[in-house]
Amino acid sequence: MMEVPRVGHSVSSPTSPCEDMIKNLSLDAIQLCERAGNKSLDSGIAEMEELPVPQNIKISNITCDSFKICWDMDSRSKERITHYFIDLNKKENKNANKFKHKDVPTKLVAKAVPLPMTVRGHWFLSPRTEYTVAVQTASKQGDGDYAVSEWSEIIEFCTADYSTVHLTQLLEKAEVIAGRMLRFSVFYRNQHKEYFDHAREAQNNKMLPSVKDNSGSHGSPISGKLEGIFFCCNTEFNTGKPPQDSPYGRYRFQLPAEELFSPKTNLYFADFYCMYTAYHYVILVIAPKGSSGDEFCKQRLPALDLANNRFMTCSEDEDGRLVFHHAQDLILEVIYTDPVDLSLGTVAEISGHQLMSQSTVNAKKDPSCKTCNISVGR
Ligand SMILES: [Zn+2]
Q1: Residue limits of the Fibronectin type-III domain (predicted)?
Q2: Which tens digit of pLDDT belongs to each residue from 286-338?
Q3: Residue 166 C-alpha to ligand 1 middle, in angstroms?
């Protein structure tokens, strides 16, 4: 954890949390009129009334929407403390417009409890986000006003990704709208001609996994971490075939579904999101059993039963042949975690249009959609 220099944002005597919030709205103005110096230079009476400043702040047990905080305190005047004020700011918003609602720093007022104290709240904590935090001790006076200590040093921490508990909640929401299952027989991947030329010439005829972008849920544990290759399996309900349009390029690599998805692979649910449209996307991961991608997913994602799930299945028919189905009402984005040899399928030009607007590269999830958001950090 890194320490940053303290910025002067102490409010010398907050009258109420509410007023504090208002003061924080114009943080820059407060900084301008803040007094220099510290309280130890004040009179002897002020010295006696001084509340202990939190020292050596430690953050632990960080999740996507909670953390534990503790600190050391001088035992002097400790019994006078009735409240803790916690000043929490998104680090990335330090220079952002503070008048926009989402950028308002959060000043939390907590009743003094034994430390460590758990701070939890999805309305002010987002997953995978850097925060700065400072604490002051406070004593509620007879008139409802607060006497406060100096602010502590400022420390930084980063909230965690969605845990499998949260991902399981997302999975259950996705199941609700998955719809009936349609048969499919191929996976396909659209790209530009240069992509396939490069795979042939520089990568020994193989498409190689690359790190997943930041599309989808902000707290997704695979964004920026899991390496894989995106495939589609959706078919048009009237033809039973892949659509001829694609946002990703005029060339399409297509291969039999069993080359990627079979009892030799594990299947994981990774994400559920939309982008301010009626369509919803589900990201699934196929990982060859025992591969490094499989190990990564095993620790972070809910596993799906190959033959029995609402999104994409692989099962055997009476003759022992593998049959594949995908959910009709979701757009599935399937990540395969190992290299794929082009000799396993064919590359051909598609006849349809390149629908750039439907691309999900680095797509931002709609945080207000009730269908695909869970009640934890966004
Ligand atoms: Zn949605």
Answers
A1: 53-162
A2: 999 999 999 999 999 999 999 999 999 999 999 999 999 999 999 999 999 99
A3: 16
